[in-house]
Design a protein that fits this description.
Blueprint: H1 2-73, E1 82-87, H2 93-99, H3 113-121, E2 126-134, E3 138-145, E4 148-153, E5 158-162, E6 179-181, H4 197-211, E7 220-224, E8 230-235, E9 240-244, H5 248-264, E10 269-274, E11 281-284, E12 290-292
Parallel strand pairs: 1-3, 4-6, 6-7, 9-10
Antiparallel strand pairs: 2-3, 4-5, 7-8, 8-9, 10-11, 11-12
């Protein structure tokens, strides 16, 4: 009897444990199922939201295009009646009108301003472009062109360059420009910008001569940049000038003062050395000894 009672008690405890474990498993499965359903609902909601936003965006774009077409691009109020096109060099306004179909009657908003702006800036001769609509019926286009200040001469070719070192297309008028020699430039072609410091020094000298209003007394025919410490200038009046690469403005002023002093003495020089800091040695004529000024 005692053994039977103990066995029944053990059996009841075992059944209770199995029931409890089963209930826990069912609860865990139920929670997992609820979490899965919640994730599915969240993902579905996000997907619906994305589709809705994309749809609204598409509708907005299409609506904006329709509004632009109706209010601007197809509106006769914005037909071009005035073309204000100006250039300051070799480009002709008529050529620009024909190339980009800038004609009276064309709608202002049918003109692709960005494309015209970008296209013109690819031309080697063009320095700046301004293009804008002036409502209701005027298109304004301004083109600033690069101006050649010298001719860069290499072993293979000669091409004009502007103040910033941009290589330009050769033209007949550049024959009267100063010549820059002695620079090592490979692949010289229109559109290239030269960054060689020796050539930039030569361009700086030409710019300073114009800025300081040196006039015909210091008119440069050629600049040789081969020497590492100074520039070798040949003036239109015949003198050879050695010019330091540092403090060029000061040395150019000394050159102008030296030329003035020589003129007052009715003397001519074959060589003027402006490469030194405190003195300006001068060789008079072709065979006279050096003099210091």
């Amino acid at each position: 009897m005692w053994f039977r009672e103990n066995a029944e008690k053990s059996l009841r405890r075992s059944n209770r444990r199995k029931k409890t474990n089963g209930e826990q498993i069912l609860q865990v499965n139920a929670r997992a199922q609820e979490q899965k359903q919640a994730r599915v609902k969240w993902i579905s909601a996000v997907a619906v939201l994305v589709v809705a936003v994309a749809g609204c965006g598409w509708v907005g774009v299409m609506g904006a295009d329709w509004v632009r077409e109706q209010l601007f691009a197809s509106n006769p109020l914005f037909a071009i009646r005035n073309l204000d096109i100006r250039t300051d060099g070799t480009l002709k306004p008529q050529e620009l009108r024909e190339q980009y179909n800038l004609q009276p009657g064309v709608n202002l908003f049918a003109v692709n301003l960005r494309k015209i702006h970008a296209d013109l800036l690819t031309l080697p001769v063009v320095r700046s472009v301004e293009i804008r609509r002036q409502l209701p019926d005027t298109l304004v286009l301004r083109v600033g062109e690069r101006v050649a200040v010298a001719v860069l001469v290499t072993d293979k070719m000669s091409l004009p360059v502007d103040r910033e070192g941009h290589v330009l297309v050769p033209r007949a008028a550049v024959a009267r420009l100063p010549v820059i020699l002695g620079g090592l430039v490979h692949g010289l072609r229109p559109g290239l910008q030269i960054t060689d410091t020796k050539i930039q020094d030569a361009l700086n000298v030409l710019d300073l001569c114009e800025t300081l209003h040196m006039g015909p007394q210091v008119r440069i025919n050629a600049i040789n940049v081969a020497h590492p410490e100074h520039l070798d200038l040949r003036l239109a009046s015949g003198e050879q000038v050695l010019l330091a690469r540092t403090r060029m403005e000061d040395h150019l002023r000394k050159l102008a003062s030296t030329k003035k002093a020589l003129a007052e003495r009715r003397q001519t020089a074959s060589v003027i050395d402006c490469s030194l800091e405190h003195s300006v040695p001068v060789q008079l004529g072709s065979s006279s000894p050096e003099a210091g000024l």
